[in-house]
Write a structure and sequence with these properties.
Layout: E1 4-5, H1 8-30, E2 35-41, H2 45-60, E3 64-70, H3 76-88, E4 94-97, H4 107-111, H5 125-132, H6 141-154, E5 161-165, H7 172-181, E6 185-189, H8 196-201, E7 205-208, E8 226-229, E9 233-236, E10 242-245, H9 250-256, E11 259-260, H10 267-286
Bound molecules: NADPH dihydro-nicotinamide-adenine-dinucleotide phosphate.
């Protein structure tokens, strides 16, 4: 079997198109422009690239984009004061603090100081709790993007066996909650899991979020399974140049899977599209308006 490629780039463009249409309607009918504020502390080059890309895509869908770039030695009090100001600003519907933060800042404290209704990353402890109890919440962007791709490909996920490899708070755990919410039978695997190959072979859906280049070989994949590769790893090629690869060995997995996401061009583009979707959702909720269909969990 040769897997169908799930084109995250094309699907993300579709999602952004839906967001842009909804944003245009909000402006026309309600004179509302959703606003997203991104806070970057320090000068991590990878984070700067993400933040630029987020800002560009935010304005492209018709939203207001605000960037706050703070020095690496910004004090916790100053950062919390900025978040407080953004929490109170009615023109801002979404707040994202780019992680990781410099070591002297307490990430949990900072994230939990964001108004949960504006927490478009879905990392605030209230949103984690709401998701865990199956209530309406802001859902972390990467797992939301994975869920959207799975729903688009399969329609219903009910009754499927899903294995999530990785148990981080930003990907693995919320991904498992979302799959459970869609009535999958979910296994969460991690570095202490015994016989990982056997566990993965039982899965109709495999979500790999490990951070280890090409760790999952094709012979772990059940014939016809759907493989969602969250990993983004930069590796050096024989010629000394670098390339991006995922957490699964694409070539061998694509021979057995029914469908698979590529890296790059799979989960990555969906993550920013879902950030925009979450900002739109937050704006609708804050103004008591109907939420956009198909853009939330
Ligand atoms: P973390 O490092 O926070 O978590 C990795 C998880 O993988 C841990 O739960 C760890 O287990 C588990 N793990 C590590 N080694 C093994 C192993 N040998 N077997 C089984 N499980 C293992 O990573 P993140 O969740 O933050 O990210 C995972 C990947 O996804 C990274 O490549 C990251 O770059 C990428 N990513 C991509 C995004 C996108 O937009 N596409 C967004 C976010 C992340 P344990 O808990 O036991 O240590």
């Amino acid at each position: 079997m040769t897997a169908q490629v799930i084109d995250g780039k094309a699907f993300a463009a579709e999602v952004r198109g839906k967001v842009a249409e909804h944003v245009a309607r909000l402006k026309e009918k309600h004179d509302l422009v959703p606003g997203l504020a991104v806070v970057l502390v320090g000068e991590d080059p990878a984070s700067e690239v993400y933040v630029r890309s987020k800002g560009k895509q935010t304005t492209e869908v018709g939203m207001k984009s605000v960037e706050h770039k703070l020095d690496a030695d910004t004090s916790e009090a100053d950062l919390l004061a900025l978040i407080d100001q953004l929490n109170k600003d009615d023109s801002i519907n979404g707040i994202l603090v780019q992680l990781p933060l410099p070591g002297h800042l307490d990430e949990d404290l900072v994230i939990n100081s964001i108004d949960p209704a504006k927490d478009v990353d879905g990392f605030h402890i209230s949103n984690v709790g709401l998701l865990g109890t199956g209530q309406k919440s802001m859902v972390p962007c990467t797992p939301l993007g994975c869920l959207m791709m799975l729903r688009e490909h399969h329609g219903s996920l009910s009754g499927m066996n899903a294995v999530v490899i990785g148990r981080s708070n930003i990907v693995g755990k919320p991904m498992a909650q979302l799959l459970l919410g869609d009535s999958c039978t979910v296994t969460i695997a991690h570095s202490r899991t015994k016989d990982l190959a056997d566990v993965v072979r039982r899965a109709d859906i495999v979500v790999a979020a490990v951070g280890r280049p090409e760790m999952v070989p094709g012979d772990w994949i059940k014939e016809g399974a759907t493989v969602i590769d969250v990993g983004i790893n930069r590796i050096e090629k024989d010629d000394g140049k670098t390339k991006l690869v995922g957490d699964v060995d694409y070539a061998s997995c694509a021979e057995r899977a029914g469908a698979i996401t590529p890296v790059p061009g799979g989960v990555g583009p969906m993550t920013i599209a879902c950030l925009l979707a979450n900002t739109l959702t937050a704006t609708c909720r804050a103004n008591g308006l109907e939420e956009p269909e198909g853009l939330t969990a």
